[in-house]
Specification:
- With 301 residues, the chain is mainly beta.
- The chain folds into 3 domains: 24-104, Immunoglobulin-like; 111-196, Immunoglobulins (Immunoglobulin-like, Sandwich); 201-300, Immunoglobulin-like, CATH 2.60.40.
- It is built from 2 helices and 24 strands.
- It has a 5-stranded mixed beta sheet, with no helix packed on it.
- The relative contact order is 0.11.
């Protein structure tokens, strides 16, 4: 039998221990975020730093960011931060149990930037309007625009316009970089074709209903990224009607994401953007609105 005074001592010790555990401080302090910004971009790296005065047994977090690093143990880096600005860090300190601390960051909405479609310059005066409708959505307004390359902006528009007018003398890739009010940025590009260059090119692939044995067109597209073709027979495509295309490589595998029609040149001649093709042999199939299939073999070099 345990003496009464000993029971009292044991009970007092247990109460004291329970009280000390319940009152154990989290020992997490000096929580800071770097860099300090009023609004962050989804591609920003963000580092959380904190101190603790007890042994850190474990550390976890909830966040959508990628490439998360925890070296040293009191630093957490999210690179990039992603679209989720709500970070919840939890851990376990020796003798103190678990702790949590939330960090909420203000994230600028993701931007979508559209440079507009590929455009053929025709008419008089000859110019093309580039950019999307609109050129940017999302992000935080106001926006700034920068189109490159410099030069050939007309109609009172500049490289800083959202939808400038351009008249380059050669086929030109234009790129726009849009920066929003939070300093976030994104780019997109479009290609502008010169009608005179298209009309003067005489290296046309000939489309036939049935391919002749060994028939081959040589398409030198390395410089222009264009394949010029025409139908063997007179064929007229009404305005607003698109042709459909399929391209197969020499092994008979259909290529995806290719190609796109630049513009009808006239006189039964067309230009096709095949910038994604490498040197080699291909077969082009063109489907018209009459459900006819026209074919040609081409050699890209």
């Amino acid at each position: 039998m345990v003496p009464l005074f000993k029971n009292v001592l044991l009970m007092a010790f247990a109460l004291c221990l329970a009280k000390s555990i319940a009152q154990c401080p989290a020992n997490i302090s000096n929580i800071s975020v770097s860099p300090v910004k009023a609004m962050y971009c989804t591609n920003d790296p963000v580092t959380l730093t904190f101190t603790h005065s007890s042994m850190l047994l474990s550390l976890t977090w909830r966040h959508a960011g990628a490439n998360i690093s925890t070296t040293p143990a009191n630093v957490i880096t999210f690179d990039p931060i992603g679209t989720d600005g709500n970070i919840l860090v939890t851990g376990n300190l020796k003798g103190c149990g678990t702790f949590t601390f939330p960090v909420v960051l203000n994230i600028s909405p993701p931007m979508a930037v559209d440079a507009g479609p590929n455009v053929l310059i025709t008419g008089s005066p000859a110019y093309a309007t580039i950019g999307g409708t609109p050129t940017v959505s999302g992000g935080t307004s106001p926006y700034t625009y920068l189109w490159t390359p410099a030069g050939y902006f007309v109609g009172g528009t500049t490289s800083n316009s959202s939808n400038p007018q351009v008249n380059p003398p050669n086929n030109t890739n234009y790129q726009v970089t849009v920066t929003d009010n939070a300093g976030c940025f994104k780019s997109a590009s479009a290609r502008i074709y010169n009608a005179g260059l298209l009309t003067n090119n005489k290296n046309y692939a000939i489309l036939k209903r049935e391919l002749d044995a060994g028939y081959m067109n040589s398409a030198h597209i390395a410089a222009s990224n264009l394949l010029y073709f025409m139908f063997e027979e007179e064929y007229y495509v009404p305005s607003g009607t698109n042709l459909n295309y399929k391209i197969y490589d020499d092994a008979g595998t259909q290529l995806t994401g290719l190609p796109s029609l630049v513009e009808t040149i006239g006189d039964n001649r067309f230009a096709l953007d095949v910038s994604g093709l490498s040197n080699g042999y291909y077969k082009l199939l063109v489907y018209n609105q009459k459900n006819e299939i026209w074919k040609t073999r081409i050699k890209v070099n």
